[in-house]
Structures are given as structure tokens and as C-alpha cells.
Amino acid sequence: xxxxxxxxxxxxxxxxxxxxxxxxxxxxxxxxxxxxxxxxxxxxxxxxxxxxxxxxxxxxxxxxxxxxxxxxxxxxxxxxxxxxxxxxxxxxxxxxxxxxxxxxxxxxxxxxxxxxxxxxxxxxxxxxxxxxxxxxxxxxxxxxxxxxxxxxxxxxxxxxxxxxxxxxxxxxxxxxxxxxxxxxxxxxxxxxxxxxxxxxxxxxxxxxxxxxxxxxxxxxxxxxxxxxxxxxxxxxxxxxxxxxxxxxxxxxxxxxxxxxxxxxxxxxxxxxxxxxxxxxxxxxxxxxxxxxxxxxxxxxxxxxxxxxxxxxxxxxxxxxxxxxxxxxxxxxxxxxxxxxxxxxxxxxxxxxxxxxxxxxxxxxxxxxxxxxxxxxxxxxxxxxxxxxxxxxxxxxxxxxxxxxxx
Length: 406
Known about the structure:
Elements: H1 8-18, H2 21-30, H3 33-47, H4 57-77, H5 89-102, H6 110-129, H7 135-161, H8 167-174, H9 178-222, H10 225-234, E1 241-253, H11 255-260, H12 264-282, E2 286-292, E3 295-301, H13 306-321, E4 327-343, E5 348-353, H14 355-366, E6 371-375, E7 387-390, E8 399-405
Parallel strand pairs: 4-6
Antiparallel strand pairs: 1-3, 1-4, 2-3, 4-5, 6-8, 7-8
Helix pairs in contact: 1-10, 2-4, 3-4, 3-6, 3-7, 4-5, 6-7, 7-9, 12-13
């Protein structure tokens, strides 16, 4: 089965949902492949209690069960596929070691044959369960594997009961008892319950996966991938805090006049292409974005990559707008902002506010088409860099910015 590609946010969400290696190990040991081995260990304890710890059987079986469960858990935790033979590794190791110790008589004992048959049933069923793209096979696999688990206690009980007797005679004698028939009916009912619960769990898992995908998409739209990853990492929402950011704005020039002469569908198509070009240009370096009409706000990391990234985003926007005879300008300012979740307990938004945001907006408003105005300028200033001094609303002193042509 082909595993779909996932981005870093998908990987972090999946890691948060799937749990730890220990949870996989315990699940495989007590509900999966190790379940039948534990039943055989119980049978060994009753069968030969006086000699149990002096014979290698219990140690070989314990190592095989624990080792296989640990290996399967590791592969699941790493997101690796489980081959059809993976659940038979422990059985093969156990049968090989015991046959070398006991000889061919190992395969004559009812408890061993019972264990082999049940393991083969379970492994076959579990392999079929992996076919999520083929529901019929998956359901058949659930029925087979859960039936093996449900019938395990009864079949091991039969193996214990026919000890020292001819098999056919012992089995016929076993079912001649009404109490044993009652146990058989209970085992069948338990198999039905296992199958029903497993199918329900698969259905719930499918719903959870679909819902998680929708929530990730909505979270990206409202908050941005980086914000969602930060919240997942800290297991909660962030309170608003002051942080250093690079805030950028890119605005379409002449949008109002152009939109009045074009149908709504074409306007929407142009805006969607404008948004997509900018966001694709920023890629994973983007902390957050906010789209409003013909303008995009970009929250970037406050480092040396901010200006090159803004120039790249503006160039992508210009290339998208050129066929419509439109252009765009941009502004970038680096400084402290108040960033976090704002609103009530039931309705919150993630946003950035402060003078840095306002200054970046003022620079964008003053930029000509194809220009990026960015600041504050570093000291000592580069004498070859073209500059501009603007009077910004709310500022007592002129704002000095560098001019970058794209």
C-alpha cells in the first residue's frame, strides 16, 4: 500500500495522535500477536507446573513473544509497513528452537499444534486487515484474526483436556459434555463481540482521520502551519506575548478600478492566484499569513532571510498579476509585536499587533509597483543602498527605509 506524502505539520499531528512506542508494545503483547503466546504460557504453567522453570520452553516462548511485540511496536512507531510474514517471526523462532530441543515430538503435542494453527490464522487475518483500500479483504481479515483470538482459550483448554488421549477420541469426548458445549457457544459469542468491536474501532478511526484532516486544514487557514505546530508541541494555546518578528505586507496596485470592470468570478480567480503565488514562494519559512481583499500580511522570522523571502514573494505576486496588467508593492519592518491568541474562550483568533505591524503597513502603502520598502536599516548603513524617508501616521520622526526593486 502506497503511503501518502506528508508535510511537517502532518507528521507532527500524526506523532501526537499515535502515542508512544510503549503503547504499541503493550497493544501487540496483550491484544495482538503476543496474546496467543501468553495463552500458551498459561497452559504451560498448568501443564507442567512442577517442571516449568527447569525446562527451556517458557524462556524461549517468553523471549519470542516479547521480542516480536517489541519489533512490531518499533516498526509501527516509525510508520513502517508490516509485511505479511512479520507476525510469524516469533512463531518461527519458537518452533525452530523447541524442535531442536525436543525433536520431532514437538509437532506431536496438541498444545503446540494448537498454537501454530492459531498463529497462522491470526497472522493471515492481520495481514488482510492492512488492505484499507479493499474493504472486503479488511473485513475478512478482522473476522479471521479476532476469531483466532476468541477461540484461543477454548482450543488450548481442549488441548489440555485431551492430554494423554487419542486426539479424535478426546475431542469427541470433550464436546459430549454440556458444560463444554456451553463454553464453545461462549467462545463463538466472544468472537462475534471481538469482530463487532474491531469493525466499530476501524470505523471510528476512519472518522478520526477524516476529522483530523479537516481540522488541520481549517487550522492552517486560520492560524498557519507554524502556529499549529507550536500549539501541538506545547499541548495548549499560546497566550499573547511580545516577540521579535519581521512583518511584511504585499498589496495589489489598482485593484479597485480593475475589479469594477471584471466579473466576480474573474476577480476571485485573480485573488486566489495572487494569494497562492505568495504563500508558495514563502513555503515553510512562513510563520503565519493573513489575507484581506487585495492585501496579504506575512509574519516571518526576524532574521537575515526576511528581506530575500519578501523579495521572492513580491516577484511571485508580480508574475501572477502581469497578465492582468496589474502590479503590487510591498513593505517590511522588523521589530517587537504582540503575538498570540485573542478573543473569548469560545472564539479565538491568532494575530499580531503593535507598532511594527503598523509601520510595515505604512511602508507598503508608500511603495510603488514592483518595490519593496524595508527597515529598520542596519548601522553602519550601506552607502550604495537607495533609501527613502517617509512620514508615517503616528510617527513623530520620519521612517527611513531601504528601497528594493524586484
